[in-house]
Amino acid sequence: MAKSTQEHLDNSTFRIKEGMSVASRSEVYQINKLSHYRKFSQIAECQNVRTGEILAIKFVQNKFYSQNKREAQILKQLKNLNLQDSNIVNFSECFSYQDRTCFAYEKLDSSFLELVLAANGTPVHLIEIRAIAYQMLVALTALNNSGFTHANIKPENILTVDEVSHQYGVKLIGFPNSAKTSDLCDLKILLDCGYTAPEVYLDCPLDESLDMWCLGCTLAFLFLGQHMSPVDCEYQYMRFIVDVLGQPENELLEKGCQSHRFFKKVKMGSNYFWRLRTPKEFEKITGSEVKKTDCNNLTDLSDFLFKSNQPEPKDYDDTEDFIDLLRKMLNVDPALRIKPADALNHPFITMKHLRYISDEFYLTESQRIMKECQHREHENTYSSLSAPNSNREQTPDLDFSKKGKINSSHLVQTKTSIETKAEKKNTPHSDPRKISPNDERFNQLFSSENFEGANSVDSKMDQSIRWEMDSSDTDKGSYSTDSDSIPSILTPGMVITGNSKVYDVEEILGSGTFGEVARCCIGGQDKVVALKVMSRQYESEFLNEVQALQILNKLTHFKHCFVKLNDSFTYQGFLYQEFELLDQTLFDYMKKRGGSLKVAEVRAIAQQMLIALCALKHLGITHTNIKVDDIMLVNHEAQPFRVKLIDFGLACNTERLPQKGIYQALPYRAPEITLGLPRDEAIDTWSLGCLLSALFLDCFVFPCENEYD
């Protein structure tokens, strides 16, 4: 496209050359440097001869003026409203010179399309995306309050101000599609596949909400380092919207004059509904070829958590809030799309959640960059955001004065894979001190064959858990609370020698079917950990848990969902695992509380566990044994209901999940297990549902005395 435009320009009688001068009615500009070609135009860096100011001038041949006439009109109106200090490019003047129409702007640096492409698709850091989003939301607030819509926001229309003096400052350019919002329905808006809102394609009534859609797609591009959706086929783009973001409601499709291009109205019974056309139907009705495209393989915006190659450090809660903002910006119903002023008060922008993270660098950088952006706006008299006496929305006050504490560590980016294809072989007992995920023993153990002995302990797993258990039971935090326990191995005052550490046993936390857990202090270090000991007869479960946690603890985004395994070793014939020290299990907490949880408390636990199950599903792992004593509170006093999933001794590769036999504790057992039906990772979801209902009802939702009931 750029080449074609250059040919058009070169065929004109007037040639733009470096060193030449062009004049308006009041100014003379000397061309210092030819920058680049855009559609129907050429950009040059120029100097105002009278003032010495460096500007950018866009030269458009007069025969293409109709495509840019709207931009000239809009920029003149915006200049009169003094909106240039609201992160909108400063416009100087528009004039004619020979056979060109010239637009003079302030000189800006690179567009984000150029920056990402130049970096070979390296994503923009989430901390910087927040600053970009904030400045663009300020710009849209200014436009909306003045009654204008940009209608063409995309990566190439967001430029950095000055990568040296204003490293994180950005401004909005590219106004040929812009118009008074009230006039949108009367104008033809150029389509930009991958960024234009669906209501534009459907030819529905339009308003300023289409800018929020464009900005959402742009922020997604910056986060991923590539286009979120197909950009070279309008059918594939619409199919992406339907598959990932949802199909527009029938009411909206009924309003669209072009809805029939993409959707077909069919009758079912006495009702009519719309469905997306098949590729062949689309080609037949439009005559356009449907191109094959492979763009990210997204199924939901939550997949951003797995697709992103975001640089470190990275805070998961921050990413979650970013995705939540994207959902609100990319709502297929324009009426439900978040407004710019409301988006400025979204948690991702205000950063209130960052008070509670432990990564001081991440917090400090987030605050510094946002304050730098705000400071620049105050320098540019941010009060000019709206016309005089208008009741504009105020930008939220970002309060960083309070900071909480958190014990979870931050994420590191590590590629991991689960090797599970080796057949099980008889292997002698071996020292697991040097354990690696690539160890052949893991390939042998992390499979369905670990369930060979599961039935033998089934009666132990079937015990109904009651909060009203005898008070003589330990009420201290533990890592397993199965009813039958192994004989005591650890005693307070005992010294255990590990790989390179010495552990002083301070307190026994609990015991269960497979092991015993103690609170230990590492000799020579001011560090307290949880040490779990197991008998050699449970070596397969021991190695299985080590492998699973080594994989899960290396996840970029989700390791905060799972207990952290620090080390594993043997000592005097027993197997040991060193874990981070957590607070207490939900089982122990419910015993102390003596009553059910509130809906908000159950919701907090559910959200975290669903994220954990989502991560397990993507890795092809099924926990198989989720119950109330396998979820631990991290630090309930400092972080109420922050939880982690533990106990992966019976975890299994989902493809090797045994399709016969009984497993799962009875109160949490999925019906397909009891009935002998095919089973997959959904058995974990059932168990979680039983657990959450028990927390809310203070009793199990189903009878659990026997399988029949």
Automatic annotation (TrEMBL):
SUPFAM superfamilies, per database record: Protein kinase-like (PK-like)
Superkingdom of the organism of origin: Eukaryota
Family matches, as Pfam families: Pkinase
Record-linked InterPro entries: Kinase-like_dom_sf, Prot_kinase_dom, Protein_kinase_ATP_BS, Ser_Thr_dual-spec_kinase
Region (Disordered): 375-439
Compositionally biased tracts (Polar residues): 381-393, 406-417
Molecular function via GO: ATP binding; protein serine/threonine kinase activity; protein tyrosine kinase activity; SMAD binding; transcription coactivator activity; transcription corepressor activity
Feature: compositional bias, Basic and acidic residues: 418-439
Keywords: ATP-binding, Kinase, Nucleotide-binding, Serine/threonine-protein kinase, Transferase
Protein kinase domain location: 14-349, 503-709
Binding site for ATP: 532
Gene3D superfamilies linked: Phosphorylase Kinase, domain 1 (3.30.200.20), Transferase(Phosphotransferase) domain 1 (1.10.510.10)
One GO cellular component term: cytoplasm
GO BP: intrinsic apoptotic signaling pathway in response to DNA damage by p53 class mediator; positive regulation of transcription by RNA polymerase II; smoothened signaling pathway
Keyword ATP-binding: yes
Protein name: Protein kinase domain-containing protein
Species assigned in the record: Nothobranchius pienaari
Lineage, highest ranks first: Eukaryota, Metazoa, Chordata, Craniata, Vertebrata
